[in-house]
Specification:
alpha/beta; Rossmann fold; 2 domains; five-stranded parallel beta sheet; globular
């Protein structure tokens, strides 16, 4: 079967599908991953065909407040929605072209799904929805991008329905234009979503039930199958400088903010180094989109690295400090190490709260608080707590053992074979 996976957004929105695609290809399917130019090497390293999607978010990530999903430097939520709508309109221009050529099945994410399903309808190509976060309304918790405060079961469900309508509005123009271009009859984004829900369209969720159990009030067809992990070549090893650093002393604390905090690398790097030294801990700083930087020249206690697979690095750490994107949060838990959550925006406060509720993380530190006078002391205290309080590692290790029994990619493969 010829399968096209369409994934758009930041690294964390795309990387998990490299490992999933490789697994499907090992099972005998031909797999293409349609995504942005920034991730072409990731796709090709996994042995998958690369297909280009427009609207590469890294093109705007060079200014403070301009990273994908990040609060704009000015304009607040209104500006964020304007940018998101522009991203979707540009993305819509390329989804049909990237998914159409010879595909037997489309695997679509929440970002590409409302567009890709129009292309599938035009060509008669079936699709399967793959989500990295819970997006369907439930009484168990509020929408994951709306904060962590519960509104009660009725309120949570109502907020979840409202959140879906906001997404419908975001995609309305792009869906309308794409259906016209493809010769499809007019239909609104809301009407199409409602039709799909009534039909019981299956959605597989690539996160762990250990971290977030499947809501009992979800309809049949909404399944939580376990994480899909970024592809790591079997022969991959840590860079020699990093391996030497790890061997030269006690396990370090990892600090990185992934695709967040673009343009704030120097400030955050200096803060991280001060906090690590105050906590008397060694550290590994991952530069990420922020451009996090450590001290100039070689030091015994801090090393700055570029892209390194978390699956290789995290098991060697004493704790991990990060923004709590869905993939990074799961990677820390999978490694059985404590987390110091520093959520920035979007779904990150939700996953930070889940890790803390599991007992595998300290109390989350909002990213905005890293700009005040107490930031160094606050971060150093949390690092000390995560490293020295044994209960965090014990609970993280217990969660890791349970996660090891999950095989999210296998569940997708079963669904694909049922469709075939």
């Amino acid at each position: 079967m010829k399968i096209v996976i369409a994934a758009a957004g930041s690294y964390g929105d795309v990387a998990p599908f490299t490992g999933l695609g490789a697994r499907l290809q090992e099972a005998g399917h031909q797999v293409a991953l349609a995504t942005h130019d920034s991730y072409a090497s990731l796709v090709k390293t996994a042995g998958l065909e690369f297909r280009r999607l427009p609207a590469d978010p890294r093109a705007d990530s060079g200014q403070p407040g301009r990273g994908p999903g990040q609060e704009p430097a000015s304009g607040g939520k209104r500006e964020l929605m304007r940018r998101a709508a522009a991203f979707v309109r540009e993305l819509g221009k390329g989804v049909a072209e990237a998914t159409a050529p010879g595909a037997d099945l489309l695997l679509l994410t929440p970002t590409t799904g409302p567009l890709g399903r129009q292309a599938g309808e035009a060509t008669g190509t079936p699709s399967l929805s793959l989500h990295l976060q819970p997006t369907h309304p439930t009484g168990d918790f509020p929408p994951v991008v709306g904060g962590t405060r519960s509104l009660g079961r009725w309120g949570n469900r109502a907020a979840g329905r409202l959140s879906l309508r906001v997404v419908d509005r975001l995609y309305a123009g792009a869906v309308r234009e794409l259906r016209t271009e493809l010769g499809l009859p007019p239909a609104s984004a809301t009407a199409l979503r409602t039709r799909e829900e009534k039909a019981g369209r299956p959605v597989l969720h690539g996160f762990s039930q250990v971290l977030l159990p499947r809501p009992a009030d979800w309809r049949p067809g909404l399944e939580v199958v376990g994480n899909w992990w970024p592809y790591v070549p079997p022969e991959a090893q840590l860079p020699p400088a990093l391996a030497d650093f790890l061997a030269s002393g006690p396990p370090p604390v990892f600090i990185g903010f992934g695709s967040m905090a673009s343009g704030e690398g120097e400030r955050l790097g200096e803060l991280a180094v001060r906090a690590l030294r105050r906590a008397k801990a060694r550290g590994v700083l991952q530069s990420g989109w922020a451009g996090l930087t450590g001290p100039e020249g070689a030091t015994d206690d801090v090393l700055t690295v570029g892209e390194v697979p978390h699956a290789l690095l995290f098991p060697h750490t004493a704790a991990v400090v990060h923004h709590c994107g869905a993939g990074t949060a799961a990677a820390g838990l999978r490694a059985g190490v404590p987390t110091v959550p520093v959520p920035v925006t979007a779904d990150q406060p939700f996953w930070a709260a889940r890790l803390a509720a599991l007992g595998a993380a300290t109390t989350p530190i909002p990213f905005s608080s890293l700009s005040d006078d107490h930031a160094e002391a606050r971060l150093a205290t949390a690092i000390t707590e995560a490293v020295q309080e044994a209960s965090y590692r014990r609970r993280a290790s217990a969660a890791a053992r349970r996660m090891a029994a999950e095989d999210g990619a296998s569940e997708v493969l079963k669904a694909v074979e049922r469709i075939a």
